[in-house]
Amino acid sequence: MGSVIKVNEEDFKSKIVQQYTDIIGEKLGGKVLAFSDEWFAAAENLIKPKAPIRDATRFVYSGAWYDGWETRRHNTAECDWVVFKMGVSSAALIGCEIDTAFFNGNHAPEISVEAANLNADAEDFDNVNWTEIIPRVECGPNQKQFFVRDKITDETYTHVKLKMYPDGGIARFRLYGKVKPILPTDLSTILDTASAVQGGVCTSFSDQHFGSADNILLPGRGVDMSDGWETKRSRTPGHVDWVIVKLGHKTNIKKLTVDTAHFRGNFPQAIRIEGIDYKDVASEPTVDDPNWETLVGESKTGPDAEHDYNVSLNKGFTHVKLVVIPDGGVKRLRCWGTVVV
């Protein structure tokens, strides 16, 4: 299994969040399949995209209301547990975030994480051959903790089991990994290689004040502005915002789509898109790398619409950079092309 280390939030964000994908998140299609108990608060809250909240005045039939997963006291079994199905075809796993926000005195004392590669959604999860990914580690009250494996392996999984010992509450659970997409046998097939489902990752950005930059890689067109990328209003002449996306595969790009769905009064006035074939696998391109090439020149956008831009360059790119001028909100970025092998 290798060793697991505890890291701080800053390191986790730079080395894990911006290099890998939260493969069980609800916004990517992850879902809860089974659980041992959810008497006080539902297990599905663990993978909600928004930060947990607290209303100490709110009570429900089972007791005090909590925005997380909380089980009954006095569990006679070793642990309570939840089984998740990933929102991607499969992934290799690197690390997790456990958030016990607002659980203080009723938090989970310890957790562990296991994973399995299943062909279908099993019903008897007790008889699954689970592999330990994160060994039993301590959880503190009302805090985030971050655990990272010393290395990512080639072993991929489809399902995950979160255990908490012996019972209690957890607000949010994030599990990061490298997506292993299913490639078509016909390599002339046009794919959206920026999609998180294909392994696309947002590696850096200028600002994400109102909405997370990695939202632009999600499937579908979302439900409202909260699941897009939106920057704060700029006041400086010449200002632009930007996001860099590492494509799931090196791609001969044929078309790019910028979707401003739900952004009706705060869409960018214009966009520009650049591409790069980045050779250094140990690092990521910076925003001012001199090797960026223009794929789409400065082009006006409009509210609540998909904007398609054809690309005439016949070559492979590993990354794209979306520049919004001067600021604003984008729902999705699609990068349509063929995989370069």
Automatic annotation (TrEMBL):
<comment type="function">
    <text>Utilization of purines as secondary nitrogen sources, when primary sources are limiting.</text>
</comment>
<dbReference type="Pfam" id="PF03561">
    <property type="entry name" value="Allantoicase"/>
</dbReference>
<comment type="similarity">
    <text>Belongs to the allantoicase family.</text>
</comment>
<feature type="domain" description="Allantoicase">
    <location>
        <begin position="29"/>
        <end position="179"/>
    </location>
</feature>
<dbReference type="InterPro" id="IPR008979">
    <property type="entry name" value="Galactose-bd-like_sf"/>
</dbReference>
<dbReference type="InterPro" id="IPR015908">
    <property type="entry name" value="Allantoicase_dom"/>
</dbReference>
<protein>
    <recommendedName>
        <fullName>allantoicase</fullName>
        <ecNumber>3.5.3.4</ecNumber>
    </recommendedName>
</protein>
<comment type="pathway">
    <text>Nitrogen metabolism; (S)-allantoin degradation; (S)-ureidoglycolate from allantoate (aminidohydrolase route): step 1/1.</text>
</comment>
<dbReference type="InterPro" id="IPR005164">
    <property type="entry name" value="Allantoicase"/>
</dbReference>
<dbReference type="GO" id="GO:0004037">
    <property type="term" value="F:allantoicase activity"/>
</dbReference>
<dbReference type="GO" id="GO:0000256">
    <property type="term" value="P:allantoin catabolic process"/>
</dbReference>
<keyword id="KW-0659">Purine metabolism</keyword>
<dbReference type="GO" id="GO:0006144">
    <property type="term" value="P:purine nucleobase metabolic process"/>
</dbReference>
<feature type="domain" description="Allantoicase">
    <location>
        <begin position="199"/>
        <end position="339"/>
    </location>
</feature>
<keyword id="KW-0378">Hydrolase</keyword>
